[in-house]
Amino acid sequence: MLMNRFLYFAAFAYIALCAAVIARKIVHRPVIRTVDTVVAIAPAPPPAVATTSGGQWFAAMKPYCNPVEVDVRVRFSPPPGTSEGAGYAAACFALAGKIERARQIIEGMPSRDRGAAANVLFAVAHPVADAGDDRASGPMMELVLEYWPNNYMALYHAGMSEYSLGQAALAEKHLRAFLQAYTVADYFHENAEKALKAIGEANSALTGRRQVERENPTRP
């Protein structure tokens, strides 16, 4: 009986000793600190920027469509590479009086796109012609006709501009073509007929003077 109690006591003592050892190891165990890993996240791509249209480009460029500034400004801010962009670029150079440069721009487009570029050029030149700026509008309309020969309003404006500038032969050619294409009896038709009548009278008077000069040569 005494021996059994001793064995129980020894077992409890052993268990207590083991528990104390384990507790001590837990208390003195080194603390392992976890380090948060920072993962670099690539920034989202910027939203797509809307392509500037030819009209937007021209609206910003128009104040510089003059002989002094146009070349530098267009190099600094080129137009969109579309038929619309080419048309507006040609219009800008044409407004600056650089018709040959405007022609080169249109010629630089594929042949199928040149008519569309000329259409844009006409849209810019038309208000200029309506405002009565014959020196600017006339060459622009003539350039339009190179790529859009049956545009009757371009024929009208080119002819009237040439008439006002004393270019009778060109004016007669374009105004007659206009009257063949445009048969509505309105302001434009009437103006073209008046201009052609005046050209005819001037030609008759010139022919009469030359006839008199031939019949009465000046003698030394």
Key features of this structure:
220 residues, mainly alpha, 2 domains, 10 helices, elongated
Structure notes:
This protein has 220 residues and is an all-alpha fold. It has 2 domains: 52-149, no CATH class; 152-210, no CATH class. 70% of the residues lie in helices and 0% in strands. The protein has 10 helices and no strands. Helix 6 (111-130) crosses helix 8 (152-164), helix 8 runs antiparallel to helix 9 (168-181) and helix 8 (152-164) packs across helix 10.
Short structural summary:
The protein is mostly helical. It has helices at 2-27, 54-61, 70-76, 83-95, 99-107, 111-130, 134-147, 152-164, 168-181, 187-215.
Question: Layout of helices and strands, plus pairs?
Answer:
Layout: H1 2-27, H2 54-61, H3 70-76, H4 83-95, H5 99-107, H6 111-130, H7 134-147, H8 152-164, H9 168-181, H10 187-215
Order of helices and strands: HHHHHHHHHH
Secondary-structure-derived class: mainly alpha
Helix content: 55-70%
Largest sheet: none
> What coarse outline follows from CA principal-axis ratios?
elongated
Structurally, the number of domains stands at: 2
Number of continuous helical runs: 10
Beta-strand segment tally: 0
The low-confidence parts are 34-42, 44-50
End-to-end span in angstroms?
A: 175 Å
Assess the beta-strand content as a share of residues.
under 5%
Mean pLDDT: 82
Question: Rg to the nearest angstrom?
Answer: 44 Å
